[in-house]
Write a structure and sequence with these properties.
about 700 residues; alpha+beta; Alpha-Beta Plaits; 23 strands; elongated; adenylate cyclase activity
Length: about 700
């Protein structure tokens, strides 16, 4: 029995095993990491003094010598300002400047673990991601609690701004670690956390159902119903806290997740007490159990109120929560002294749960910064209950753990071939539900990206070098598509086809960011003596059919529609104009002006396979910042010259485009139109836009 208990403890430690954060202490909003080795210490928690700007979004920060500082991780509640102490509601920006080693070879990433409310991450003034929508007031604020991983720009000087807003929770600010690491380590760690929580939840669900079945076989064994209800409460708390794995299956609203977290917490303590009372009614007090039942019922009614009220119970209920555990431990000790059945094993398990619960309460209240270990300790505790039912049950649980782990790995492997987003829009929970002919009609934005002159370029490389190059390129643009709410439908040689199902703006932002990433990539290629690459991106918005194509022995997900063909043709137009990003008129009309990007009309262009020509628009932000600025400054002159061209006033158009080329010699679009003007003067008539 002692050996078995030791094995269970080792199981708990294996679930918790992950490389710990090394805490770096920032001073006055600055942190020098030039001498830090991310090989020896992979994860850096950015603790210490961050600059604190109350009621100030990052775009309005004005740094002075009298800036305020707040030690993170910490809530801003009670922070003393010149006009008094802060409450929980409000908005604030936290800023830290970091100096990295210029010779870092790996892409770095920032992981912001779950906070109490919404936040946005800005690096060097650029928005990279976040949770929910922080805003200056409750009307512009959307609460959400989740972890966020963002890829950092490849530079040694980083200015990180965390914009945090809270109008629903009792506490505001950053209470969890902000971790800097390589992107590979960050993604691996986040995946491991989700796998661990999935395993824990699977165990709790399996054991709970096992005891429920045992109850129906033996209605006199009321303790089996007690352990089932307790396992169910801890199961719901496990999937609604930490990485909130319930959100992997459905995007539940903030208010639902928060109430699920609290109600499972409120009832886990009295249900555990009830379980032990049914086991040892002679040693446990029924009055104490009724007291905790009543308290949990009253607190559950409080969940009908807005979160700002019921979250206040988090400062009261922990006392009752730990007190309940102390009562159980004392009464179990009585049972142990009387040599009750299995009381020794249960006493050891309850001690483990009590220590873990105390840790979780102190961690949740920010008195200590560790991690939640309660669910894991409960799994160990529940295992101890299973021991009383014999060897067969223990073997079944081991098989369940292995199956859950294999299913998680299998699901992860399949998701790399068939995007989970594809299945989601097809209305399927997982790939096992997919069948030939499944289809759905959607309106989406399609993005095609293709490397210019790749055929000639690839002929200079060996097959292995071709694969290495393409993988290096795709690893840079793929995450950008996902970070902008899109997903890659397929790779077509060197071309990428991506879908953006939610917002046209996502596709335009992704295209601009992809061009920025390619410029950085070309810098690396230049340093290594390789030739740079150019990528043309075409975007169109329209209706499409998303479904499963093939035959019963070989199927694949695909998208079929005229909109897809048109997006591909528009990408080809980038070669005609030597442009970086070209979008259709439909996409241009739906794109938001709030994006802050600059556009110019190209022409009505005949598309192969289309009876009518279509207007196409160029996104100027796809160029290098210097070239884009020059094109934007001459945009009005370009519009006048284009208008003259369309009116067939070629003399005026030639004069206009010539002046544009004097200012911007590398303006390939103006050069193309100038050539067309000269051709038009030598012909009686030409079809514009041919």
């Amino acid at each position: 029995m002692k050996k078995l208990f030791l094995i269970l403890i080792l199981f708990q430690l294996s679930c918790l095993s992950e490389e710990r954060n090394v805490k770096a202490e920032a001073e006055k909003g600055y942190l020098d990491l030039r001498n830090h080795s991310f090989t020896e210490h992979a994860y850096i928690a950015l603790n210490g003094e961050w600059k604190f700007f109350w009621n100030t979004p990052p775009s309005k920060i004005r740094e002075t010598d009298s800036d305020f500082y707040l030690n993170l991780p910490n809530h801003w509640n009670g922070y003393k300002m010149p006009y008094g102490s802060l409450g929980g509601f409000g908005q604030a920006s936290f800023r830290i400047k970091i100096k990295l080693n210029e010779k870092l070879s790996e892409t770095m990433a920032l992981t912001v673990h779950e906070q109490d409310t919404s936040y946005a991450i800005y690096v060097n003034g650029k928005y990279l991601g976040g949770s929910g929508i922080p805003g200056p007031n409750a009307n512009e604020f959307v609460p959400q609690v989740k972890s966020t991983l963002v890829v950092l720009p490849e530079t040694s000087d980083l200015t990180i701004d965390l914009y945090v807003a809270n109008y629903v929770h009792r506490k505001g600010g950053i209470w969890n670690d902000i971790v800097l690491s390589t992107y590979t380590n960050a993604e691996s760690r986040l995946t491991k956390r989700k796998i661990n929580e999935t395993m824990l939840s699977s165990v709790l669900a399996f054991v709970g159902l096992f005891f429920l079945v045992m109850y129906f076989y033996n209605r006199d064994g009321k303790h089996t119903m007690g352990i089932f209800l307790f396992s169910l409460a801890v199961f719901f708390r496990t999937i609604s806290t930490g990485e909130r794995i319930i959100s992997e299956f459905y995007d539940f609203p903030y208010w639902f997740l928060l109430r699920l977290e609290y109600i499972s917490w409120f009832w886990s303590a009295p249900l555990l007490y009830h379980y032990f009372y049914t086991l040892f009614p002679e040693d446990f007090s029924k009055k104490v159990g009724n007291f905790f039942y009543t308290l949990s019922f009253i607190l559950s009614l409080g969940l009908l109120l807005p979160p700002v009220y019921f979250t206040e119970t988090a400062s009261i209920y922990p006392i009752a929560f730990v007190g309940n555990g102390v009562y159980i431990f004392v009464y179990l000790y009585r049972a142990y002294k009387k040599s009750r059945m299995e009381s020794k094993l249960l006493l050891a398990g309850m001690l483990l749960v009590l220590v873990a619960a105390t840790n979780d309460v102190l961690h949740a209240e920010s008195y200590i910064h560790t991690m939640y270990v309660g669910p894991t300790s409960v799994v160990v505790f529940v295992f101890l209950q299973v021991i009383t039912f014999g060897r067969i049950v223990r073997q079944n649980i081991t098989k369940s753990l292995e199956f859950a782990h294999e299913q998680k790995q299998l699901s992860h492997s399949f998701s790399r071939f068939v995007p989970t987003e594809f299945l989601f829009h097809l209305g399927k929970a997982d790939i096992r539900q997919v069948d030939l002919g499944d289809q759905v009609q959607k309106r989406m934005t399609i993005l095609f990206a293709d490397i210019r002159s790749f055929t000639e370029f690839s002929e200079t490389l060996t097959p292995k070098e071709n694969f290495d190059f393409l993988n290096s390129y795709l690893q840079r643009v793929g995450p950008i598509i996902r970070h902008n709410n899109g997903f890659i439908d397929k790779f077509i040689g060197d071309a990428v086809m991506a879908l953006f199902p939610y917002d046209t703006n996502d596709a335009v932002k992704a295209a601009v960011e992809m061009q920025e990433a390619i410029r950085i990539y070309n810098g690396h290629r230049s340093n290594c003596g390789y030739i740079p690459i150019e990528v043309g991106i075409g975007i169109h918005t329209g209706n499409l059919t998303l479904g499963i194509l093939g035959e019963h022995k070989r199927m694949e997900g695909t998208v079929i529609s005229d909109a897809v063909n048109l997006a591909s043709r528009i990408e080809g137009i980038t070669k005609l104009f030597s442009s970086r990003i070209v979008i259709s008129a439909d996409t241009f009309i739906e794109a938001s002006e709030g994006l802050g990007y600059h556009y110019r009309l190209l022409d009505r262009v005949a598309i192969k396979g289309k009876t009518e020509s279509v207007f196409v628009v160029e996104v100027l932000d796809g160029y290098e910042p210097e070239k884009a600025a020059r094109l934007v400054s001459t945009k009005d002159d370009y519009t006048l010259a284009l208008d003259a061209f369309r009116r067939e006033d070629f003399e005026e158009a030639i004069e206009g485009f010539s002046k544009l080329l004097d200012t911007n010699p590398d303006d390939s679009v103006s050069r193309l139109f100038l050539e067309r003007c000269h051709e038009a003067r030598t012909k009686p008539k030409m079809e514009l836009g041919s």
